[in-house]
Amino acid sequence: MIVRGTVALQAGIRSEFIQAYRTGPLQVPRFCTIIPSDKDTENYAWLGEVTQIREFLGDREITGFTDTKYTLTNKTWEGTIGVKRSEIEDDQTARIMTRARDLGTRAAQHPDVLLWQTQTNNGTCYDGAAFYSTHPARTAQGVAQANTVAQTGTTITAIQADLQSALAVLKAIKDERNLPFWPMIEPKDLVITCSPSLEFPIRTVIQGSLISTTSNLLQGAVGAIYVNPFITGNAWFLHYLGGALKPFVFQDRVPVTLEDQLADSETGFMRDVYLFGSRARYMAGFGLWQASVRVQ
Q1: Please, is 102 exposed, middle or buried when counting C-beta atoms within 10 Å of its C-beta (0-12, 13-18, 19+)?
Q2: Which end of the chain is more exposed for a tag (fewer CB within 10 A), N or C?
Q3: pTM for this one?
Q4: What would the mean pLDDT of 209-235 be, rounded to a whole number?
């Protein structure tokens, strides 16, 4: 026998979950190239090779896939809440719905969490080097290139100097034909991510009109700043998000669904607990190292 009100509870939990889930994710669309996935693992052999526009002389110059072998495997993610049958009998609806909203919010935010963790983990990217490191020369580049800047400090003056260095590094990066990777960079497309402790010093540098009674020439040089709570220490990152390809990729395999097990399930019968859980398959990984610079 199903407890009275279970059907209404099931519909209510689903409604609260969906409403909360619609709030996000917020950062993945900004920082990631979103790749629809139709299998367990996707191959990103196309990363790094840029098609340049040139005068049509003779045959076309064809840009194909590179010799890179970067792959990304989807993972399955879940979040589950248990509702005691007695909570339903005692009409603890408000408390149950609050938990459903929290589950929906956390399911919405998890892709952002995964993105931030990917950034701080600094794994291997498409050219075989760590994402933030010195990258080997490829084809016509001639020399290795680094997307890192040695940090000089965390004072306002030091952050000003380091931001200028990071901007110079980003704008000087060359593609595989030894041409500027980003021919035009607008400040509105530049974003900084940092630890909570550096948020306000960096905001002062990019948003303050005066610093120590002197006009701030870096005001407006970067469009926005976001706090990555997974960053430890004093590292911060400058990203260019104006290209079709972003610093990171988000591989979307199976969208979030909410499933349940009620009175007729083993858990409902043996433990007197109803289960409501989210499930999805996706993964975040590294896109273009040329679109991101670490200051550390």
Answers
A1: middle
A2: N
A3: 0.86
A4: 92
